[in-house]
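Example (one chain per record):
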Amino acid sequence: MLDLKQQKKRRTKGNRRIREKEKRDWKATFHRAFRIVLFSCSSALVISGGVLLAQIMFESGYFGVETIQIQNLRRLKADEIIAGSNIKSGDNIFGLDLETIGRKIEENPWVARAEVGRVFPREIVIRVTEREARAIINLGYLYYVDGDGEIFKVLAADDNLDYPVITGIDREFFLDRPQQAKQLLQKAMAVVDRLAARTIFSLEQVSEVHVDEEDGVVLTTCRAGVPIRIGFSNYENKLDRLERIYAELETKLPILNGIDLNVSDRVIVRIDQAYTSGRS
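Predicted structure:
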């Protein structure tokens, strides 16, 4: 009988005897290792050389500021922005903290936003967004208000006073209820914006914009000081109604006690009782 286990063992044993030990190619291995070392050393030299070159250029003044370009100025002067930035000629552009410089420029009350950027190799660009005064508010001192309802600057002796005055918000209300005060101020400025775009009844006819939580916005005309109640909403429609009859009303302003635009599709005109009594 054939012994399969014995035959399998012999076959396995025989196969092991047939295998020959592979010879290592030490020459090829050496060449591969040499190339790897050479590449690593070359890379290190290139990186080191680059770092050294950058350091030399950094310290040599190659990246020193030569030009400061100021963009989008309207009211302000470039010298004011440069002085506020505290950037000096020769300062390394890589050593400047651009965000900090932007915040320093924004300390100027007329600057809403300042974006500072580098232009290689030696230039700094400052993009300025200026505030525009749209009204004046009295909070113990007179302040300018911009189109977003932001109170941004105490008026100086030489500042322009030719803006509508916002009333109804005093300093105490502003400090105790800042959120409500800001909302009312934005309502007032929304009316100011709409008046600025009009030609028949415009900002030129308005001396005061009063705003409070009960009546909303009340305008006062420059001529005769007539109050015009406009409320909290639908300003465009209400001003359209007023403008359709304003040419006729304008001559009668001295005898009017008030105009109310809060009634839908109507303009309510109240005549001063002193005038009606005198006529009777």
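Caption: DSSP finds eight helices and twelve strands in the chain.
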